[in-house]
Amino acid sequence: MKKILAVFDGLKLAKSTRDYAIQIANENKAHLVGLFLEDPFHHSYKIYDLVDEKGGISPEKQKALIEADQNTRNEAVAAFEATCRKAGIPYTVRRNKEIATQGLLQESIYADLAIICSNETFTNRSEPIPTRFIRDILSSVQCPVLVVPAHYKPFDKLVLLFDGEPSSVHAIKMFSYMLPALKAHSSEVLSVKPMSQSLHLPDNKLMREFMKRHFPKAGYKVLKGIPETEIVNFLKEEEQCPLVVLGAYRRGMVSRWFRPSMADVLMKSLKLPVFIAHN
Fold first, then answer.
1. How far is CA 261 from CA 57, 255, 271, 278, in A?
2. How would you classify the pairing of strands 186-193 and 113-117?
3. Is the pLDDT of residue 258 over 50?
4. How many whole angstroms separate alpha carbon 6 and alpha carbon 22?
5. In 219-273, alpha helices (H)
């Protein structure tokens, strides 16, 4: 049985993380761990909320606000447990009190998959997507990650991004190994090539041979142009609601200096779940 982490900030529970995690755990008969990161430096209040009429820090106000945060976190855990029980899935709750980034990275070593909402910050501020916390996690996490949008919408198709590089094949492998039940959904391999090249799939024979054994009913689509533009446009026009599988997408060094990663582009431009596995 696979172990899936659903990562939460108990001060602002991401219901979409919970709902995607339950869908995936249920379809794959996995054990779901609700990981509530209770960073000791993360509060719902700001420093000026503690100031009293005399301009000093009020111990009474501080105590009341800390208790309110604890109650909010307790309620978030209780809501998660109630939803898991209703769904009939095996689950565990873990309340990690380390620095949020450190806690998640440590937990990821012993997990098969982590699921987290794209707008998580673990601060009392809002940030553009992808947030600094999400970027930090994706650069160091020790298991694949499913980054989900803020609103849950059940996915009914898989789009597997492929550029002929080992990293993209690795992501498809990891998805196939860890979430085999999701292969019941329709799937499509999507590649983008420069205008000067043919429309043949990269490593055509080898890739089709590989896919025949992992996703035998997959379709194939090869586009021409700039990957960030063509992939986003393709997904925007998709009638079904896809889950995107992504390793890395090839580009030259100069291009990497001036253009954001494909994962960043997808999270920013589309409200879709994105499965990311680094090689």
1. 44, 10, 17, 13
2. unpaired
3. no
4. 9
5. 227-236, 253-258, 262-269
* CATH architecture of the domain formed by 3-148: 3-Layer(aba) Sandwich (3.40)
Nearest of 159, 38, 40, 22 to residue 91 by alpha carbon: 22
The beta strand positions in 24-180, using DSSP E, are 31-37, 91-96, 113-117, 145-148, 157-161
Q: Give CA–CA dist 229/198, Å, rounded.
A: 18
In angstroms, the CA 279 to CA 259 distance is: 21
Domain 157-276 has CATH 3.40.630.30: no
Q: Report how far residue 44's alpha carbon sits from residue 123's, in angstroms, rounded to the nearest whole number.
A: 8
pLDDT digits (tens, 9 = 90+) for 27-36: 999 999 999 9
DSSP bridge pairs for 41: none
pLDDT score of 256: 40
